[in-house]
Write a structure and sequence with these properties.
5-stranded parallel sheet; 249 residues
Length: 249
């Protein structure tokens, strides 16, 4: 896998590697680091905000390889990733079942040079089905492209600060909506405001857990408005929700 990584690094592309155990992920991360690879390990102890920062840094090229166990749950959408390496692909189980393999392989689909490598000692039924389905989808896409004269290209997606940057530029429509909400707040009783704040805090935390940061930000703006009206607090930066891991949104 080290040779495959170096091929991608030379092209300024990124690599995702998925393992089955925490120990293997840690050992692989140490091994790659010792061999000059810029690598990070994404594990379950990392809180929501830090996880997003790691994914942003991967896209920006602060490091080239991300190692993880269940990369499916991270909501990864990284066009720069051209290689997905699945270790122990023949170890049957949830993370190596047909559906999981198809979804993990799909992490490389947004890059024109995208490729998935399944490392295994034998070919399992799940691997066969996943490869067959991937080939079927690829053939269908190629036929569609040829029929419509489409030239495949890697998806170009702006790297944004998913914590605050995406929230800094509100459209006129969003601002108008906030003003309307401000008027509604002024008509609310203190008890209603307190109840609404609790509801929005719960909703924002739920969005953060689901990595829906733009939705969380909208709720944060509403919270800022409520707090300003009720307590004189100003700005969304004063509103903090702690995730279960202790991180902030």
């Amino acid at each position: 896998v080290l040779g495959e990584i170096r091929l991608r690094v030379e092209k300024n592309e990124r690599v995702l590697i998925t393992t089955l155990t925490k120990r293997m992920a840690e050992q692989l991360t140490d091994y790659l680091g010792d061999n000059g690879v810029k690598v990070r390990y994404l594990h379950s102890d990392i809180d929501t905000v830090e996880r997003v920062e790691i994914l942003r840094d991967l896209r920006l090229g602060a490091f080239d390889v991300l190692v993880g166990i269940n990369l499916l749950r991270e909501g990864l959408d990284i066009p720069e990733v051209s290689l997905v390496a699945i270790l122990d692909a023949d170890k049957e189980g949830f993370l190596r079942a047909e559906r999981s393999l198809i979804q993990t392989i799909g992490r490389a689909a947004r890059n024109l040079n995208g490729k998935a490598i399944l490392y295994a000692d034998r070919m399992t039924d799940s691997m066969k089905k996943a490869i067959s389905e991937t080939d079927r989808r690829r053939a269908h896409q190629i036929a569609h492209n040829e029929a419509h004269g489409i030239t495949p290209r890697s998806i170009l997606k702006q790297v944004r600060d998913l914590i605050d940057g995406v929230y800094s530029e509100k459209t006129g429509k969003e601002m108008a909506k906030l003003e309307l909400e401000r008027a509604k707040v002024e008509d609310m009783s203190e008890k209603d405001v307190s109840r609404e704040i609790k509801r929005l805090e719960k909703l924002m935390l739920e969005h953060a857990r689901n990595l829906e940061f733009e939705k969380a930000a909208r709720v944060r703006d509403q919270l800022a408005l409520l707090r300003e009206q009720a307590f004189g607090a100003r700005g969304g930066d004063n509103i903090v929700v702690l995730t279960p891991g202790g991180g902030r949104v």
